[in-house]
Amino acid sequence: MPAIVTDQVPDPAAVAAYLRAHPGFLGDYPDLAAQLTMGRSEGPVASLAAYQLQNLRDKNTQLEQRLAELVKVAAENEALMERVHALTVALLRANTLEVTLRTVFARLSADFHSEQVRLLLFGRQPVLPRGDWLVQIPERLDDVPEFVGFPDSAEPVCGRLSGEKLSRLFAGEAATIRSAAVMRLGNCGILAIGSMDVGRFQPGMGTLFLKMIATTITAALTRSYDVA
Asked: pLDDT tens digit string along 119-135?
């Protein structure tokens, strides 16, 4: 039976649907596959095979870039874990409240490259280091108006803070702080880390290491209070 010839142009969507439903179609008609071409905005028309090869190369490049990013993140996380471990060991060796506080400030400033570190301690302690980084608050947290409603968990609050909170935490340096991470240290106080980089601490960022730091410092302070 002779083939029926018609001037009707097939619907491209129907052709595409047919080819998706029959992926082996071009294998049955290799001459057709060789004649197909793909228009490219960045260069001349390419054959289907060349187009597919270039697509594979592009995807391979993307995968290599993604792998490099993952390796970089893994290396950064490993370095952070080593610093958290070093902080923990140093705090275990601290035998007084004063040494504990100095260790927290020194380690966070040097090992974690923190631009501004502030420790707000509740209650009255007779012997404390002197420095702008340490503030003693006789009241409880509930009595500090700037932090009414502040979470009592170790979950860090990250991002931009109100002017009142910045003033309470960073005093004369408040105007330079563009982002901060604030953590509750149990009933001992509050830890704040401030940065002049607006993007360093952001809402929704990963806070695993910050929580580990806060938990470690809380345990060290609690032990020092008990010893004192």
From this structure: 998 887 777 888 889 98
Residue 50 lies in a domain: no
* Stretches in the chain below the pLDDT threshold 50: 1-2
User: Tell me, what CATH number does 157's domain have?
Assistant: 3.30.450.40
**What is the SS3 string spanning the chain?**
CCCCCCCCCCCHHHHHHHHHHCCCHHHHCHHHHHHCEEEECCEEEEEHHHHHHHHHHHHHHHHHHHHHHHHHHHHHHHHHHHHHHHHHHHHHHCCCHHHHHHHHHHHHHHCCCCCEEEEEEECCCCCCCCCCCEEEECCCHHHCHHHCCCCCCCCCEEECCCHHHHHHHHHHHHHHCCEEEEEEECCCEEEEEEECCCCCCCCCCCCHHHHHHHHHHHHHHHHHHHHC
Q: Which domain holds residue 174?
A: 94-227
Q: Does 103 reside within a domain?
A: yes
Count the domains in the chain: 1
For residue 137, being part of any structural domain is answered with yes
In a domain, 174, yes or no: yes
**pLDDT at 180 (0 to 100):** 96
Per-residue pLDDT tens over the stretch 169-208: 999 899 999 999 999 998 888 999 999 999 999 999 989 9
